[in-house]
Every structure is written in C-alpha cells, then in structure tokens.
Amino acid sequence: VLQQNSSVKLWGWADGKKVTVTTSWNNRTYQASTDKDGTWLVKVDTPEGGYTPYSITISDGTPVTLSDILIGEVWICSGQSNMEMRMMGNTAQPIDNSLETLLNAGNYRDRIRFITVPRIKDVQRRADFKKEKWKVSTPETTIDCSATAYFFAKQITETLNLPVGLVINSWGGSRIESWMTEETLSSIQGIDIETAKSSKLDVRNRLGCLYDIMLWPVKNYTARGFLWYQGESNVGKEKTYVERLRIMAELWRKEWGKRELPFYLVEIAPYDYGEGISGALLREAQFQASSLIPNSGMVCTNDLVYAYEKSQIHPCQKEEVGKRLAYLALNKTYQYGSIACEYPSYWNMSIQSDTVELTFHHADEGLSPWKDIKGFEIAGADKVFYPAVAVLVPEKKTIRVHSDKVKHPVAVRYCFHNFQPGNLKNHRGMPVIPFRTDHW
Asked: Are the C-beta atoms of 16 and 179 separated by less than 8 Å?
C-alpha cells in the first residue's frame, strides 16, 4: 500500500547509472541516478486512494515489475511488546476476539496489508531487509500481525473505505533510548551516553540500536503518521521520559521529512510493578509528553485490564486499544469531528470543609456512572491517602470526594497506583485519565 495523494519515495539499488520508474496509474516515467554505492531514490506522485490494483515497473536496463499495489493510508507502528503482540497472543496471554477476527480476516484482503520489520541481533545499521514481504489480510497471515495495529487498521478502513498499510517495527522490552540516535540523546541532560551504548546491554536496549536496525530501513517509506505503544521498560525513569519522547517524535518526523506528522501513543496499562507508584508516574509522564508534542494524542487504557491481569503485562483487550488509536486518527488526522477521541483529564479542585470538588476537561456532557465510582483517594496535610467516596454532581458535571478519615483534605488521587483500574468515564465512554492533584 502506498500513501494516497502524496509524493512518495521509492528507492533501491542498481548496477547501472540510470534507473527509470514507471507508474501505471498515470503512465508517468521518472528517472533517477545511482550514487557511488548504487543507491537510487525517486519521488512519484500518487492518486486518491481506492481498491484498484496498480503496478510499478523499475528498470536499469532489466525491468522489474511490482504488481497488486493499492493506494491508501499508511501508518508506522512501533514500540515494545504490547505493540509487537500478535493476534495469536502469547503463552497463557490471549487476545480478546481474536478467533472471530481471524475468521473474517479474508474479507479484508484488499483493505488491510502489512509488513513486519524482522528482528536481528546485529547492531550495525542496515538499509534493507529481505526476510519479510508485504502480506494481505487472511486468517493465515493475520495471526502473525500486531493485534493493536490490525484492529487500528480495521477501524480506519471501515470508516474511510480505503486500503490501509501497516509498517510494523516493534521490539518487546525495548527502552525509548534505543529508538533514538546518539547525537539526539547527547543533547538531553542527564544521560550517560557511554553506559547507554555499552556492549553489555542487549540489542533492544542499547542506545540507538533499534533506530539503526528497525527504523532506518523503512525511514523512506512515506506514511500518514506514527503509532507508538511503549513505556513499560522505562518505568522508574519518568523524570526523563517526557523530554525523550518529545525529542524522539521530533527526530522521527525529521527523518520522514514532515515536521508535524501525527504521533499517537498508548498509555501503558495498569500492572503490578511492585511497591510504590512507578507505573503511575510513567503514565503521568506519557500524558505530559502528549501535551507537549504537536499534533499528537494519547489513548487512555486505565479501564482495559481485567482483575486477573494484575501481574500480566500484556492485557488482552487489544481490540479496544486499536479502536481508540483509530478514534484519535479519525478525529485529528481525518477531520471526523463527531468521533470522540479526547479523554477526561483533571482540571481544577475546590475544597469545602471535608469535601473536595473536582472539575474535568473533556467532560462537557457530564460523567458516569452515577453510583459506585471506584478509584478515588484523599489525603490531608500528613500526606496519607485513604480510599474516598466519590459522588457525581450531574447538574455541575463535577465529582465530590470525601472520606470520614480525612477532616481537612488537601489532595486527591484517582487510580494513581501501579495497578488500579477505574470506572469513571465521560458520556462517550472515554475513561478519565489517572491523576493526582499533589506533587508529593
């Protein structure tokens, strides 16, 4: 799948000095010259997307024809294991609704196509890979596709009625530092460059390695935007994550040659990281980063875990994650203004005696449920938090919080733990982003 209505890059290697590229949709011929290494690159204009298959003929004297090419929407899907997690699931970690999705995958043969960048242990920058090819959606192929990415594409193609191409380059357990260059990271205070690029670290965590072997081979592939699902391996490093994610997004946009390509990220799900609130702090950092990165947004996943998944870092509700990413893209990128994509977030609080009243962004039509709201805590000046009773005030679209154990409250938290799913949502079903009113 090539990006519609664009000037897309085609590139490769040739023995001759001249290369011609002919595109069947407009019968135009483009010419390119090879450099000293035999590399060539050309930009070709693409039409409006649709389901008509096209071909491209490339020749340096000996022609090669690429056939069954569709024009549509292309997205780069990166991150760590929750992006990598395939439709088949992991051992004892299934994907909800995967069987039905696989049974119907053949119906999307001309609607969803994907290519997965293969993982290698070499640390040297690579310009190409040969193991993987583009795949069309079938039960046999989709079982190996990133579940989050596939569900995203399924919603996008159903709404836009256009083919969707996915370029999947993710690696489980990877840190954000591995997806950036040494030059870029050197501009950030507080990073030990020598330690970060130590050969004692495995490939997925060594500074710049995944940038070189996973991102670099596809950096010329023209796309509509990026989907990013990573953060678990940076838990405990929340103080540096905000700036690094902002700079990484800036770096990737620079490589793709567009300063504000959409960049949509997924909040890491509730998980038991042990004592403390390290997971909550990383989620807070993700939300902060999404507000700093232009043309971006974050999917909240606080409600997308089951109780039994407390010690399971790969929750199975990937269909909803993919859909929520699609809602962001449909609203912000494709201008479907009626599709909700913003999550209620803490705005302000006022204290009246022993009760705190909270207001929220993106809750103009109110919140729900009306009873049994879960996840709130309240504390006084002693900084000790107690479970709180939360009551909806429908006419004001606010939440009032109190606890008999806190007579003089000063702070409120909502689901601000490593694992604490909540149930408070706005009227479009978008969950409230976990928050704290304090900075303790």
From this structure: no
Pairwise CA distance, residues 167 & 236, whole Å: 30
Q: How far apart are CA 402 and CA 391, in angstroms?
A: 9
Is the pTM for the entire model greater than 0.70? yes
What is the distance between the alpha carbons of residues 208 and 198, in angstroms, rounded to a whole number? 11
Classify 210 as helix, strand or coil: helix
Which residue's structure tokens are 């294991």? 81
The DSSP-derived string for 105-165 is GGGGTTTEEEEEPPP-S--S--S---S---EE--HHHHTTSBHHHHHHHHHHHHHH-S-EE
Contact 356, 415 (CB under 8 A): no
Strands 28-33 and 63-79: unpaired
Q: pLDDT tens digit string along 65-89? A: 999 999 999 999 999 999 999 999 9
Beta strand 263-266 with 112-116 is unpaired
Q: In the numeric block, which tokens belong to residue 112?
A: 């969803």
**d(Cα 30, Cα 234) in Å, to the nearest integer?**
45
Peptide bond into 217 cis (omega under 30): no
